Amino acid sequence: MAKQRTSFKLKNTASELNTLCRNLKQFGDSLGLTKKCVFQINLALDELFTNIVTYAYMDNADHWIKFALSLENGTIVIRVEDSGIPFDPASVNKPNQANTVEECPVGGLGVQLIRKLVDDVEYRRKGNKN
To answer: Lesser CB count within 10 Å: N end or C end of the chain?
Structure first.
């Protein structure tokens, strides 16, 4: 039977991206997901993880980012938890598509990429956790 759940945690450092990719590939392979599907999940989580590493912490200490992936009623559900500053990706406005690359404001495009790659994004803040 295919592995229906996996979880892991990564330190808040960009060097953990390879571990993220490896864990996602193992989960996708265990479920028989297509390479395209695994690539899209990886791209979305890579962007999210990179944003957390870059912006969520105001100190140089080690922090853990937890990932939980599961297959629930035919849907892949991914939960990401961090103790960084509060940030609701749904609060990011869509960029003006009429702008040229030079005129686009810095930031926000990664969140848009995530929204395009996944069906739904929800945010919750519980205690000191995103």
So the answer is: N
- Coil, strand or helix: which one is 23? helix
Kindly give, in sequence order, each residue whose CB lies less than 8 Å from that of residue 126, ignoring residues fewer than 6 positions away.
none
Instruction: Identify the residue whose tokens are 């989960």.
Output: 27
Residues 45, 67: contact at Cβ < 8 Å? yes
Query: How far apart, in whole angstroms, are the C-alpha atoms of residue 34 and residue 17?
Result: 20
Assess contact for 59 and 103: CB atoms under 8 A.
no
Nearest to residue 33, comparing CAs of 42, 50, 104, 56? 42
Task: Give the list of residues 6+ apart from residue 14 with CB closer than 8 angstroms, or none.
Answer: 50, 53
Would you state the pLDDT for residue 70? 96
Nearest to 11 by CA among 40, 43, 47, 52: 52
Q: What is the pTM of this model?
A: 0.86
DSSP, collapsed to helix, strand or coil, labels residue 93 as coil
Report pLDDT for 95: 65
Termini Cα distance of the chain = 32
